[in-house]
Each structure stands twice: as C-alpha cells, then as structure tokens.
UniProtKB/TrEMBL annotation, chain A:
The keyword Nucleus applies. This is RRP46. Its main location: nucleus. The lineage of its organism: Eukaryota, Metazoa, Spiralia, Lophotrochozoa, Mollusca. It comes from Mytilus coruscus. Keywords: Exosome, Nucleus, rRNA processing.
Automatic annotation (TrEMBL), chain B:
This is Ribosomal RNA-processing protein 43. InterPro entries: ExoRNase_PH_dom1, ExoRNase_PH_dom2, ExoRNase_PH_dom2_sf, Exosome_comp_Rrp42_subfam, PNPase/RNase_PH_dom_sf, Ribosomal_Su5_D2-typ_SF, Rrp43. Belongs to the RNase PH family. Pfam families: RNase_PH, RNase_PH_C. It is found in: Cytoplasm; Nucleus, Nucleolus. It comes from Mytilus coruscus. One of its GO terms (molecular function) is mRNA 3'-UTR AU-rich region binding. Its main location: cytoplasm. Residues 32-167, 193-256 form the Exoribonuclease phosphorolytic domain. GO terms for biological process: exonucleolytic trimming to generate mature 3'-end of 5.8S rRNA from tricistronic rRNA transcript (SSU-rRNA, 5.8S rRNA, LSU-rRNA); nuclear mRNA surveillance; nuclear polyadenylation-dependent rRNA catabolic process; rRNA catabolic process; TRAMP-dependent tRNA surveillance pathway; U1 snRNA 3'-end processing; U4 snRNA 3'-end processing; U5 snRNA 3'-end processing.
From TrEMBL, chain C:
One of its GO terms (biological process) is rRNA catabolic process. Gene3D superfamilies: GHMP Kinase, N-terminal domain (3.30.230.70). Non-catalytic component of the RNA exosome complex which has 3'->5' exoribonuclease activity and participates in a multitude of cellular RNA processing and degradation events. It comes from Mytilus coruscus (Sea mussel). This is Exosome complex component MTR3. Component of the RNA exosome complex. SUPFAM superfamilies: Ribonuclease PH domain 2-like, Ribosomal protein S5 domain 2-like. The keyword RNA-binding applies. The keyword RNA-binding applies. Belongs to the RNase PH family. One of its GO terms (molecular function) is RNA binding. Signal peptide: none annotated.
C-alpha cells in the first residue's frame, strides 16, 4: 500500500477534521455535530447523518450523489446514531487530489474526522481498494494510471470488531473466485490501515 | 390484538415471528423472488420498450433513439443515457419536481450497469465515424413502487434494449445530410446480459432476496449484485450491517441462478412475441 | 439549454431520425368517400377500449385505460395533508398533474412538464372538480397523477375518464363519474375519438372547418363539466359535435360501470378470504 499521512485539527470552525493523504490522493473532511437538524429531516430515535461531497470542479451530478450515499450509509453504520436522537451529524468532504483509490481515501478520512470530532462510534472502519488488471493480477491500492488500464476496481470497507464487510463497491467484470481473492487481500491490508489509525492517535 | 394491528404496531417482531420459520409474511422462502412478469414491445411509439412486474413493483422502460455528433475523444462511440424516474404516481413518498436523491442514485446505478456490463457495444451505435452516432435515451418509469425497483429496472432496461430496432440511416452524398429509412429496421446487437438481484439484511444476519417496500424499510442493510453471464459485474453494498465474506458468496450463488432464470424468461417472452 | 445535473446527461444536441425521413408519404384522405376512416372505423365509431382499476398497489386508487393505442395510467393519493403552506381553505383541494412519458409520442418529450402538459393539467382539474364532493375532506388535498404511456390521440379525453375511474376506485366521494370524449371536426365530417394522425393532419388546411372539441360529461346528472375546443369551427358543426360527444359518452358509461362493478366484486372476494 502507498504511504499514508494525516493531519488533524487543521480547520478551526468545525468539531473535527482530517486531511488524509494516501500516496498522491488527498482528501479533506470536516465534521459538524451533533448539532441541530432541519425539522423535516429529524428522526425521532436516532441522529440524521448527512454527507456533502464537494468535487474540485463542476456541479455535483448523479455520480457525486451516489458517492455521497455510499459514504453516508457507511458512516451511518459506524456512528452510534441512537446516542444522539433528533440531532444531525454533518460530514463535508472536499476533494483535494484524486489519484486513485479515491473512495477508500474518502471513507478513511471521514472515519478519522469522526474520531477527531469525538462522535461516539460502534466500531472503526478501514477502506481498501484493489484492482484487477488485464492480466488478471491483483494490485493493491492502485494509482490513477493503473486504474485507467484496469479491468475491475473493487473497494472494500471492513470494521475493526470482527473484520466483516461493511461496504463493497465494485466496477468492471470479474469472477467470484477473483472477488474472494480480493476480499482476503483487502482484509489483511485493512489491518495496516487500523494500525495507522492507532499510531496516528498515539502521536497526537 | 389482531394480526393486522400487530403488523402495523410491531413490524419487526411480526417479521421475526415469520422468519423464525424461514418464511416471509407473503409466503415466500428467503431465496424466492416474487412472480416476475415481462412484456416486451408494449409501447409502439418507442424504438424499444418493456414492462416489468415484480410482484406489485412495476417499471416501464421506453427507449428513444436520436442522432447526434460523437465526442471528439471517442469518434466511434454512441451514447446510452439511462434515467430513472420515481414519479409521485408510483408511491406516496415521492413528490413532484426534479428527481430526488434516490432517483439520482438509481440513474447513476443504471449507467454503471450499462458501462461495466458492456451489454451494448457503443461502437455498434456508430453511423459515420466522427460525424454521426446514435444516442439511446432509455427512460425507466416506475409505475408502482413496492420495493426492489433496482432489479426491475435492470431487467426492464435489458429487455427494452433487446427490443430496440433502429431505422437505417444513409448519408446523402450531395447534401451530406442523413436520410432515414423507417421501413428497414435493424435490431441492436446485445453482447451480454446484466441481471441484478437485491438482498435485504434483517436483524443483522438474516438475508432474503427481493424485498418489498415494507421489507426494505425494516432492513438493516441492502446488497445489490449484478451478474453478466458467468461473471460478476457490480457488487454494491452501501454500508448497512457488516457481513461475513461467506454470506456474500452465498448471495453470489443465488444471483447466478437468478441470471439463468431471467435469461430463460426473456427468451420465452421474445419467442412468444415472434409467434 | 441549462444542463440538468440531477439526471444522466447525454450529448449536448441530438435530433430525431424522423426529421430526416424522405418526404414521399402521400397525403391520404382522412375519410374516404364512403365515410370510412383510415383505421376502418365509421365517423361515429369509438375505438376499442379497455379499463381496469386498482393497478397501482401503493396508491389509494388507480386506473389504467387503453383507447385504441392510447395508453394512460393514473393514480390518486389522499385525502392527505397539504404540504405546501397554501391558502387556508375549509374546502378540500384537488390537484392534477398530467405528464406525457418521454417515449410516449413520435418525438421524444422532455422530463420537465411543458406548457401543453401544464395546460392539460388545468383542463383535467376543471373537468373533475365539479364532480368531487370537496366539502367532504376539509383542509386536506387529493392528488391526481396522470401519465400518458403512449399517445395515439384523444389523450386529454381518455385521461379524464381514467382519472374519474381512479377517483372512484380511491373511494373519494363524487357526485358523478366524468367521461371524457373528443371529436375532430374536419371539413363536413365529425370524427369521434380521433387518433393522433387525425388530430394533426389538417393543421394547415384551407378548409372552413378544422378543429377539435373535448368535453367532460357527467352521465347520471346529464351535465357537462368541462368543454374545450380549438381551431375554426362553424357553430352548427360545434353543436353537432357536442351532441355526438354526449352520445359517445353514453356509450362509454356502461363499460366504466362494468369495470367498477367487477373491481368491487374482486375487492369483496379478497377481503372475505
């Protein structure tokens, strides 16, 4: 996997933030919450999680909406939403540089920002992307150049409780055998990510 | 408390009671889809159309073919533009106006299915390289929203694409304008069959296929798997209850079975129209 | 054109292949000398009709109608809460939304409602409102959504019939059903239930009479709830067309009654089980 670095507490106005750099890919995330929530979005027994994704250029379209939804549902799973009924937790994700394994980087940075904000979580999550290239080899944490020539791109999100799969998102075609191989490879690498989280907090 | 009140007041307990016996309130097994009805070519104003009923869920797909200029980067490629419309007609939860988040996500999902399954070779939509290509506007209209619209949409789109017959276009050499011959129509070649199957996770560990709207609301997670023939094409599990890899593998097996069922259904329907 | 970011975008411009068809189609007469139309009907004949209620499980009431090749589906929701803070009214409110599916006409339609659709929404509302007991659901609203799946003429008339059936299916109290019927006046002929070709053929004709008439008719009250006409029509012909319309409506009425009757039977059977 490419080297990961992260800076916390760069922004002053939000409750928690993280700027995660994974190889060349860089994402900044801010978390606000638990705060007030609009009346029509209020849920009686749990918090409303909202994700706003901002890309570098252009208006947000359907692709961004899908991206937002994947991240939001993942965060909703990790957050102990029942601890904050009738309140909102807002996550804003800003694209800085997309050079491959982008979704994974966004989810990891959102998880770190939530930790930084002190939002109570059920478990931590780590996202890992892998790529199946034309020769059928599996490349872990691909960069954008490799992604372009790849046959399939698979992103997995694991939790640190029992290392089960929280989120999967895949593109391209592959066999179920290859899917299994990718799962086990990403699962092993997710431990590296959790290790990184741990070291980051130790150094804070 | 009568059974109907129990269902309304304590829906989760109601479902649990059934699922303990490995059956759902509508009498289905956990791995059983609702009755799937397919009607191909039902709208003659469209260049290709299909109506899918999955239990109560109804989706209609109509394809309109138009002519346009290709992108300069891809001078040989045509366009496929799928859009899902969840109109206020199909459920009390949708309001009129521009598409909401769910419709947008579903449209994007359909686009990814088309792109990754490569069911239509975009180069087959080329008329003259760099000048004129086909654009297929595939509009998916939900008429009745009773859960699992994704699977119904994927099937409707595939069936409608199989129904597409494009008129022949020739280029007039003098005026360089295209000329349409509506009498000579050519069917669109379809190179693979994407088939989707959706699973709901209940109480973090029970998986069942083809959820109704009620089941979708109670679910703690949703997984959609799209297969193309013997390959996986899209595995989409946006959050929700964490699953063990074996549970996913079981879903794959069911999805491949479904893929066979669907291709049989499409063949039978097309055959019955030809007769 | 502003790009719609909430939908999947295609190329910036595209043209219908129909724009480039070779114009060798010979103008055929709409009605032959012995009074037979292109589809083999006589002037006063209606097309084959199919009506079914209760087609949408999520709606309070719904109906589907096929009139020849014209296919329309309609759903009714409510009485439910008024969402937008509109003027307070002790009377119930009725709203109508009429939409052509993008693929329902020979040319592709846009996703947003255009002016014709908005106009039809209002006409539909005006045709139905006199028949609905609005005072029975004060401070609430009933929403009617009509979607034309395939348009082969008389779309407004068919949607009036369809919407009124859906209202009945929803159990909304009404004074009467409303039956829609339209006529095409062409030269000295009055054509019942015109197809799309008959509706549009003589747009630039020099004839004295070229127009169409649509009415909403309440059969048991024997009243007309809405009437709309367009084009140039002599008064005598308009009168004749109107009587023909009413006559045609009376032919449709038994079909509607029968359909409602059987749907109620089905519902009773289902609840017994």
């Amino acid at each position: 996997m490419r080297e990961m670095t992260c800076e916390l507490g760069q922004l002053t106005r939000c409750d928690g933030d993280a700027c995660l750099i994974q190889g060349e890919t860089c994402v900044a995330t801010a978390v606000y919450g638990p705060t007030e929530v609009r009346m029509n979005k209020e849920i009686l027994d749990k918090a409303t999680v909202e994700v706003v994704y901002k890309s570098k250029v252009g208006l947000p379209g359907c692709a961004e909406k899908m991206f937002e939804r994947i991240i939001r549902n993942t965060c909703e799973t990790t957050i102990l939403t029942t601890a904050h009924p009738r309140s909102g937790i807002n996550i804003i994700i800003q694209e800085m540089q997309n050079s491959g394994s982008y979704l994974a980087c966004c989810i990891n940075s959102a998880c770190l920002a939530l930790l930084d904000a002190g939002v109570s979580l059920k478990f931590l999550v780590a996202a890992v992307t892998c790529l199946i290239n034309k020769e059928g080899d599996i490349i872990l944490d691909p960069n954008s150049k490799q992604e372009k020539d790849g046959k399939a791109l698979l992103t997995f999100v694991f939790n640190n409780k029992d290392f089960n799969i929280v989120t999967v998102n895949t593109k391209g075609s592959y066999s179920s055998r290859q899917f299994k191989d990718c799962t086990s490879l990403c699962k092993t690498s997710s431990k590296q990510v959790f290790e990184f989280y741990k070291n980051l907090w130790k150094s804070c | 408390m009568t059974i109907f009140n129990f269902r309304t007041a304590r829906p989760v307990e109601y479902y649990r009671k059934y699922l303990e016996q490995d059956v759902r309130p509508d009498g289905r097994d956990l791995g059983e889809f609702r009755r799937t009805v397919l009607n191909i070519g039902c709208v003659t104003t469209a260049d290709g159309s299909a109506l899918v009923k999955l239990g109560n869920t109804t989706v209609m797909c109509g394809i309109k073919a138009e002519l346009c200029k290709p992108k300069t980067e891809t001078p040989k490629c045509g366009f496929i533009v799928p859009n899902v419309e969840l109109s206020p007609l199909c459920s009390p939860y949708f309001r009129s106006g521009p598409p909401g988040e769910q419709a947008q996500v579903m449209s994007q999902f359909m686009l990814e299915v088309v792109n990754h399954s490569k069911c239509v070779d975009l180069e087959s939509l080329c008329i003259t390289q760099g000048k004129l290509v086909w654009v297929l506007y595939c509009d998916l209209l939900c008429l009745d929203y009773d859960g699992n619209v994704t699977d119904a949409c994927v099937l409707a789109l595939l069936a409608a694409l199989k129904n597409v017959c494009l008129p022949t276009i020739s280029i007039n050499e003098e005026t360089e304008n295209p000329e349409t011959d509506l009498t000579k129509r050519v069917p669109l070649p379809i190179s693979s069959q994407p088939v989707s199957s959706t699973y709901a996770i209940f109480d973090d560990n029970i998986l069942f296929v083809d959820p109704t709207a009620e089941e979708e609301n109670l679910a703690t997670g949703i997984i959609t798997i799209v297969t193309t023939d013997d390959k996986l094409c899209l595995v989409h599990k946006p959050g929700g209850s964490p699953l063990r890899p074996e549970q996913l593998t079981n879903c794959f097996d069911r999805s491949f079975d479904r893929s066979k069922e669907i291709s049989r259904l499409i063949d039978e329907t097309i055959h019955s129209i030809d007769r | 054109m502003p790009t719609d970011t909430r939908r999947i975008g295609g190329p910036e411009e595209s043209f219908s292949p129909l724009a480039y068809t070779l114009t060798d189609s010979i103008k055929t007469l709409m009605v032959s000398s012995n009074g037979i139309r292109n589809d083999g009907r006589k002037c006063e004949d209606l097309r084959k009709m199919f009506i079914k209620t209760g087609v949408i499980s999520q709606a309070r009431g719904s109906a589907y109608i096929e009139q020849g090749e014209t296919k329309i589906i309609c759903s009714v929701y409510g009485p439910r809460e008024v969402v937008r803070k509109e003027e307070f009214s002790m009377k119930g409110q009725l709203t109508c939304e009429f939409k052509y599916a993008t693929f329902s006409c020979s040319y592709r339609r846009q996703h947003q409602q255009d002016s014709e659709e908005k106009d039809f929404s209002v006409q539909l509302l005006e045709a139905l409102e006199p028949a609905v007991c609005l005072h029975k659901f004060p401070k609430a609203q009933v929403n009617i959504f009509v979607e034309v799946l395939q348009n082969d003429g008389s779309a407004l008339a068919a949607s009036i019939t369809c919407a009124s059936m859906a209202l009945a299916d929803a159990g909304i109290e009404v004074y009467d059903l409303v039956i829609g019927c339209s006529m095409k006046i062409h030269e000295d002929k009055v054509l019942t239930d015109p197809t799309i070709n008959e509706e549009y053929d003589s747009q630039n004709s020099k004839q004295l009479n070229h127009g169409s008439l649509t009415i909403g008719f309440m059969p048991s009250l024997n009243q007309i709830s809405a009437i709309t006409s367009k084009g140039e029509i002599q008064i005598d012909f308009l009168k004749r067309a109107m009587t023909d319309c009413v006559e045609a409506c009376q032919k449709i009425y038994p079909a509607m009654q029968q359909s409602l009757h059987s749907s109620i039977k089905d519902k009773l059977n289902a609840s017994e089980r």
